[in-house]
Specification:
Blueprint: H1 3-19, H2 33-41, E1 43-47, H3 52-55, H4 76-85, E2 90-96, H5 125-136, E3 139-144, H6 157-173, E4 179-181, E5 188-190, E6 197-199, H7 209-219, E7 224-227, E8 233-235, E9 250-251, E10 281-282, E11 285-290, H8 308-317, E12 324-329, H9 339-356, E13 365-368, H10 376-379, E14 393-394, E15 403-421, E16 431-438, E17 441-448, E18 455-474, E19 480-487, E20 497-500, E21 505-509, E22 516-520, E23 537-538, E24 543-550, E25 560-564, E26 572-573, E27 595-596, E28 609-627, E29 638-646, E30 653-659, E31 670-690, E32 697-698, E33 700-704
Parallel strand pairs: 1-2, 1-12, 2-3, 3-4, 4-7, 7-8, 8-11, 11-12
Antiparallel strand pairs: 5-6, 9-10, 13-15, 14-19, 15-18, 15-19, 16-17, 16-18, 20-21, 21-23, 22-24, 24-25, 26-28, 27-32, 28-31, 28-33, 29-30, 29-31
């Protein structure tokens, strides 16, 4: 008679203890509320537009006239809406780039929009962007370059006060910001009020970043500070739009020189690709990449916009690795996004919606090897399918390698897997695997080495299965997984790959078989009526090739575009083969090889250095091209040049000179249009300054005659 009540009480106590088990303890450093909002944004665009749009430069020198800015159709609404169509949730507007020109009527410098003809000197483009974002429900961020190649006081203490005042104006007058974006490019040659000189700064101390960013925290507490060292968001270390296959949101920035403190523009930026496991700070990576080859609009880059499927691949390699994607868009001379770019953004947005519209796990039966304290109501597997980032399946503290079996009820076909952790509890998991049931046996089909805010695993081919199994292989603490999904990316035809041999023969090919490939050489879009590719064809004088795969007249791929210069058959490099590689490698039409004068065998150690080519016959040169080394090293990359031509190899005339701006971060092929076409047999590229090192390197150098 006494035992039954005692047993009942014990059962009730045990039940209460189990279901009252506390939530998992957070692991490591955690994101702030503003960073949580940033993670939820996932994708935004950075907008480059200004005087550089009209001078055809990436970095203005600082001496450009405000009179250049007078777009006929500028529409912040059209620009922001183009981003929204792409599925982006915000924009970061470049309010001032390195040329120092301000797109708002600042009181800090006369080099601003009020001195331009735009809206008769009464314009304020930043205000127009603010209003457009409010109307479209988009977030607004601002970029104000610390480097100012126009300001006479740059490099002196007085400029820092000016820069801070510019930030205060932007923070005070344009509503709530979600980002304050601070570039690491600082110091170098510039106009500087007419001084035309090189000014260097100590990047660790000059801006007084602690005091400068304190202004941000006070005036815009919800704005995430972007910089090489954070404070809230770090640069991923490249401008390719890709995070590491392992991506830690935690990060400990390191100075490139032992014993010194890191600072914006002074950090081991390459470590930002992956981050730091168990780093001191929560500073996730932003993956910035331009939609076109360059950040500003260049007419010569029309037709070279990244395709929707290329953008989808970048999405998997940025957002799909727990980072965010920051895509650069560039309004044209009219002050709007071109129809080509707008259409591609819209197609990308539709592709994202199609891919992630339906979680094929809906209705599945999930069975976990462990649920925290047996409390399925709070920590059960149903949380994995509720679409909430912060409800989660958790295991008991001593269970760090659980499994989850999934019965889809019926066989389903998929090619994308999604996992999320509840990052409010930190980034916990270090390795996972997914298996499928094949005739009663488990077969591994995918894996990952970090999860965090988001992990998308894109399979190389479609998989059809009814039963799946998730295995947590490595985690220092119990798991807290918030979402799990499988999705089906739409079928699409392979885009043609365009290559050209050293003798000028163009080959078109695809990774998977297609019914036909059609191409054009006049810059128009290929249609079923365009020439059909059946064998390599000659393109000795260069030009633009566009190609598209067709299955039917209505079923076709995206357009592939490739521009070629004059074929280099018969060319001779007259520069001796000192350093690394023979000098002929600079004109062998093979991008992976390069010539360098910086190697240990080099007898040349001083700049400037010349590279001379004899084309064999006279050509009417309209532009020249320079491809820097493509091995992700910076030594010898030319960033300041002179280009001269000659008819006899003895008497030279300078045809162009300037800088390859931003080439260190974005080492793409550089095309320089000559102001006037020149007839010559010989040309000479002179490296006047390099990113690093004492010699020059050239992967490819060429000329365009079309």
């Amino acid at each position: 008679m006494i035992r039954k009540p005692i047993i009942t009480v014990l059962l009730l106590v045990t039940h209460a203890l189990a279901f009252g088990q506390a939530a998992p303890k957070p692991y490591g450093v955690l994101p702030s509320a503003r960073q949580i909002g940033w993670h939820e944004t996932e994708m935004y665009c950075i907008i480059h537009y200004g005087l550089d749009t009209y001078t055809d430069k990436e970095w203005g020198y600082g001496n450009e006239s405000p009179e250049l800015l007078n777009p006929s159709k500028f529409s912040a609404l059209q620009i922001v809406n183009a981003a929204k169509k792409g599925g982006f949730k915000g924009v970061v507007v470049v309010a001032k780039h390195h040329d120092g020109f301000c797109l708002w009527p600042t009181k800090t410098t006369s080099h601003n929009i009020s001195k331009s003809p735009y809206r008769k000197g009464k314009g304020d483009m930043i205000k127009e962007y603010e209003l457009a974002c409010k109307k479209l429900g988009m977030k607004l961020g601002l970029y104000c370059s610390p480097w100012d190649r126009n300001n006479a006081t740059y490099g002196k203490p007085a400029y820092v006060d000016i820069y801070r005042q510019q930030l205060k104006e932007l923070y005070a007058n344009y509503g709530q910001l979600f980002m304050s974006w601070h570039d690491g490019a600082n110091g170098g040659d510039g106009y500087y009020g007419g001084a035309n000189e090189t000014r260097k700064i100590d990047r660790t101390t000059y801006y007084g970043w602690d005091s400068t960013w304190a202004i941000t925290r006070k005036m815009q507490p919800l704005a995430n500070i972007f910089g090489d060292v954070g404070l809230d968001v770090r640069w991923v270390g490249n401008e390719e739009g890709r995070a590491g296959t392992t991506h830690w949101a935690t990060y400990t920035p390191q100075a490139p020189d032992e014993g010194k403190l890191p600072a914006n523009g002074y950090v081991k930026y390459w470590e930002g690709v992956e981050g730091t496991r168990n780093g001191k700070y929560w500073i996730p990576a932003e993956c910035d990449v331009p939609l076109r080859p360059g950040w500003f609009y260049h007419k010569a880059q029309d037709g070279q916009t990244k395709s929707p499927y290329y953008l989808l691949n970048l999405y998997y390699e940025s957002v799909g690795r727990g980072a965010n994607l920051d895509l650069g868009i560039s309004p044209n001379h009219d002050g709007v996004i071109s129809s080509e770019d707008e259409q591609i953004l819209e197609e990308f947005g539709k592709l994202l919606k199609q891919t992630f519209a339906i979680n094929l796990l809906k209705g599945a039966r999930l069975t976990a090897s462990n649920v925290r304290g047996g409390n399925t109501a709070k920590y059960g597997t149903q949380n994995l399918l509720d679409g909430n980032r912060y409800t989660y399946w958790a295991t008991s503290d001593n269970v760090t390698k659980p499994t989850l079996e999934i019965d889809l009820q019926t066989a389903k076909t998929f090619n994308v897997i999604q996992l999320r952790e509840n990052i409010k509890l930190g980034q916990r998991i270090e390795k996972v695997a997914l298996d499928m049931d094949v005739n009663g046996e488990w077969k591994e089909i995918a894996g990952a080495t970090s999860i965090g805010a988001n992990r998308l695993i894109r399979l190389s081919k479609n998989v059809t299965a009814r039963k799946l199994r998730l295995r947590i292989l490595q985690s220092p603490v119990c798991v807290a997984i918030s979402e799990l999904g499988i999705y089906k990316e739409p079928v699409h035809l392979s885009v043609p790959m365009i290559t050209r041999s050293g003798k000028g023969l163009v080959t078109l090919s695809t990774e998977a078989p297609v019914s036909s490939i059609h191409y054009t050489v006049d810059g128009t879009a290929p249609t079923p009526q365009s020439p059909v590719y059946d064998e390599p064809f000659a393109l000795p004088n260069g030009g633009v090739i566009k190609a598209r795969s067709f299955e039917t007249k209505q079923q076709y791929s995206e357009i592939a575009t490739r521009q070629f210069g004059l074929v280099k058959t018969g060319w001779k490099a007259l520069t001796p083969s000192t350093g690394t590689g023979t000098s002929q490698k600079a004109i062998d039409d093979y991008e992976e090889t390069f010539w360098s004068s910086t190697g240990p065998a080099s007898a040349v150690t001083n700049l400037p250095q010349d590279f001379v080519v004899d084309m064999g016959t006279s050509q009417l040169i309209k532009a020249f091209t320079y491809l820097p080394r493509q091995d992700k090293k910076a030594d010898g990359i030319i960033d300041n040049y002179s280009y001269a031509v000659s008819t006899d190899g003895l008497n030279w005339k300078v045809a162009a000179e300037g800088e390859f701006a931003n080439i260190k971060s974005n080492p793409i092929a550089q095309t320089v249009q000559l102001s006037t076409p020149v007839s010559a047999r010989y040309f000479k590229l002179t490296g006047k300054h390099v990113v690093s090192g004492s010699g020059i390197t050239i992967a490819e150098i060429g000329v365009n005659i079309k």
